[in-house]
Structure formats: C-alpha cells, structure tokens
Amino acid sequence: MSTAAPPSAMAPPPPPIVTTYPSQRTGKTPAVQQNRLSVSTGVAGEFHKIVFYGEAGTGKSQLIANINNHGESVLFVDIDDESSYLNVSRVEPQTWDELLAVLGDDSLLDGFTAIGVESLTKAQDLATAWVLANIKNDKGNACRYIEDYGWGKGYAHVYETFLHLLSALDRIHRSGKHIICTGHECGTNVPNPAGEDFLQYQPRLQTIAGGKHSIRHRVKEWCGHLFFFHKDTSVNKEGKAVGTGAVTIYPFGVPTWWAKSRSPHINEQIIYPEGDTTLWKQLLQKGQ
After folding, report:
1. Strands 185-190 and 198-203, how do they pair?
2. CA nearest to 174, candidates 31, 48, 267, 8
3. Residue 260 contacts by C-beta under 8 Å, 6 or more apart in sequence?
C-alpha cells in the first residue's frame, strides 16, 4: 500500500481569496482577483458527518452496515477490527500513514456513497504512535511516551496530527459522501459550579483540563451528529442497577452524556434493537 506523506509534509491549503483596493498613495487600481465564491440557497445538508459512540456491543457497526438498505453503499475503513463479522466492503489500514493514504485514494473510495471509520479512538492511538516515531523533543531526542515531550507539548503534537484525519474526512464529505465514525465511550467527572460534580459519558478521545488540544471537543464541534448508544438500566427492589438488554440511541445531550443532531427530522431518542434502521429512515428520509 502506498504511504501518505507525514502531516508536516502535506501540501499547504490553497491561498485565501484576496481583494485589493486602489492605492491611496498612487491612485492606481491594482488587478483584483476574481472571487470564486457564489451564493447558494436552500437546505445544503444532503450528506452527513456522523459520530456513533458508546460501549462495545451496542450495534454501532451493524447500524453503519445497514445504511446499505437505504440507497447508500458504505466502505468500512476498519482500523479497529470491528467489521469482521459483517458482510461489507472494507479496507484495513494498520498505521497512521496507511490510514491517510486510504482516505486520500479517490480510486479506492469511488463507487461508495458513505465511508465508515472504525474507530476514532483507535485512530488517535495510531496518531500517537506516529508522533512518537517521527517527532523528537526540544532536545532532539526520541520519545517513548507523550509526557517525554514536556508539559503539554506531546498532546499538542497528537492534536495537530489528528486534525489531518478530520481534514481528509472533510475533503471526502465535500465530494458528496456521508462520513460515519465510531468511538468508544468513557465516564468523565464534570465540575459543577452550581452544585455537586457529576459523571458524564463522552467519547474516549484525548482531552486536557481547560480544553486546550482536546481532540474530544474538536470532534464534537466537527461532526453534524453525535449519537450516544447506551444499554439501558433499571433499579431492582434492592436498589441495584440491572441491565434491561435494550439499547437506546440518544440524539440530544443531557448532563450525563454528550449528544447532538442538526437534523430537523430527529427529535427524540430511538429504541434500537440491533438491525433496526429507524435512525436512517429519519436522517436520510428514504424508505427501505
């Protein structure tokens, strides 16, 4: 498989469109670069950027695969060995360079209308491994651990490296494809100035106190939909929490978990027996 250029060697973004004005000193009018932008109207959300997160075994991969039942065709970019039991098309990059190479290969992605990335949590691990293998600390020494770079510097390297993945996915999204990513969950203690602190479910991605270089917050901002998959519990007569066996997809956040959806068609939680496609019906507005 071809190897993608490391983030530091990737081509810079195109220069911004600049409009110049007559010089007050000479009175001459320099050539004005033509603006390439145009006005559009109407709803522009035909293609979606989606993140599913939750504990293992809640059916996230199966739901991605079931988008094929709604007029779409998905390619799994599986770096976490999550789709092996599904009858789907997949490619399995094993390193950060291979992952970027796959996402930059239009000949590989052509023919698919959705790209499923399994998972962002594993992708962060690959980005961290790439940083440790390629970036030295201020003294020119190789590092074995992120903390070896000095206070916060290693996390900054991982954050900046991870942004290249989001940029690659943005490019694919703009070409006219759905982006569907998965992530694992973690419980985070949230300070509450108005009362007692509380535990909140969030995607298991890098975050640092204060939010600087937080991949977790950046992904939340980046996606159009952040769906939380949760195995529901109830309380028995002894006051103990017991699992009910049901999975619910939550499209809106509450103090105990992160979630959001920009779709006007999704306005409540969805009970999700594995294999059910209610979410795709509501989000894509397509029948079976």
Report:
1. antiparallel
2. 48
3. 220, 225, 226, 251, 252, 253
What lies within 8 Å, CB to CB, of 120 at 6+ separation is 51, 181, 182, 183, 203, 205, 219
Specify the pLDDT at position 233.
63
Task: Report phi then psi at 23, rounded to 5.
Answer: -70, 130
Before 119, cis peptide (omega within 30)? yes
Task: Report whether pLDDT(50) > 90.
Answer: yes
Q: How far apart are CA 29 and CA 238, in angstroms?
A: 82
Q: Quick one: tokens of 108?
A: 């590989």
Q: pTM here? A: 0.80
Q: Which domains does the chain have, with CATH numbers?
A: 45-284 (3.40.50)
Q: What is the pLDDT of residues 68-81, one digit of tens each?
A: 999 999 999 999 88
Instruction: Give the CB-side neighbour count of residue 15, counting CA atoms within 13 A.
Output: 5
Q: What are phi and psi of 101, to 5 degrees?
A: -65, -45
Rounded CA separation 115/79 (Å): 13
